Amino acid sequence: MHPFLLFVILLIAALSPNSAGSEQPNAGMMLQEMSTAIRSLNYEFNYIQADEQDIDSLRYRHVILNGKTFAQLLRMDQLRVEVRQNNDQISYFQSDLTPFTLLGTHIVDAFPSVVFSDFSMLSQYYHYIFVGKMRIADRICQIIRVLPKENNRYSYFIWLDEVTKLPMQINLLNLNGQTLEQFKVISLNMGDNLTSFVQNLKKAPVPPLMKLPEEETVNFDWFPKWLPAGFVDIPPNEHQLMHKKKFLASRFYTDGLFSFLITVSPVNKKNNTESHFQQSRRTIQTQVRDHIQMTVVGEIPLSTAKRIADNLILKINK
Fold first, then answer.
1. Please, are residues 125 and 254 in contact by the beta-carbon 8 Å criterion?
2. Range of the domain at 263
3. Entry's NCBIfam families (predicted)?
4. Looking at the domain assignment, is residue 210 inside a domain?
């Protein structure tokens, strides 16, 4: 939907007599209910995920049985991609790749990460605004805006099914209010027949766990002088890897909703250079300064990534 048309519809809904004369729902509580519903209910989504470059059609099934979580994500068009969850084991299958398994609590590829967020904690850095109702996939949905208090990160519009609190549509917006990515449900099934796929999933062989590369030690002394409010590094505070006989040190940062990675490594380039790339939510900002290459990669606007890189203090201890 065109951003201006969406704005007009939501503005009319927010200013309508019914909305103005009645108490507004607690948007933060509704978001917490969404996070609970996505983990605890039995359901099946047929949905699309779209960004500036591509559109995918997918099916996601989720069942809680005897206290355990079973789920399946299936790409419906083009190359077959399937992800299965058998409680804490997340297995990936793709025709041109060797299957592998990771440990986790949910299939991260199934939904925008916002649905799993701690909205109580995030309220320090984001406003939650109820803006009205709209119909999605023949279901009445409540619309919530997740708006950063500082203009250095993205925002969301979220449509929640009024009955189940499951997300029916999620739009990620850039600093100009333009849609970068969209998650949109086409059909929702809450029937009793969902448990049938669980038996097949239980019997299916589980691919081996993926092994992470060994870490190496290098004497880097570096830290970001500036970060957007609320972003903290996630322990272990630093990863150091050997890649093609070169050391690469990295740190991962998140505010609980968006995340980015900072990497630094020594290079032979003498001249200071700078480059950037952006596609949908993903930004890559690279700088070479004093024989050290630093890269900021993540779900943040380009202007924010550049400011982080500009304020990175680093050196190699000799």
1. no
2. 220-316
3. PRK09455.1
4. no
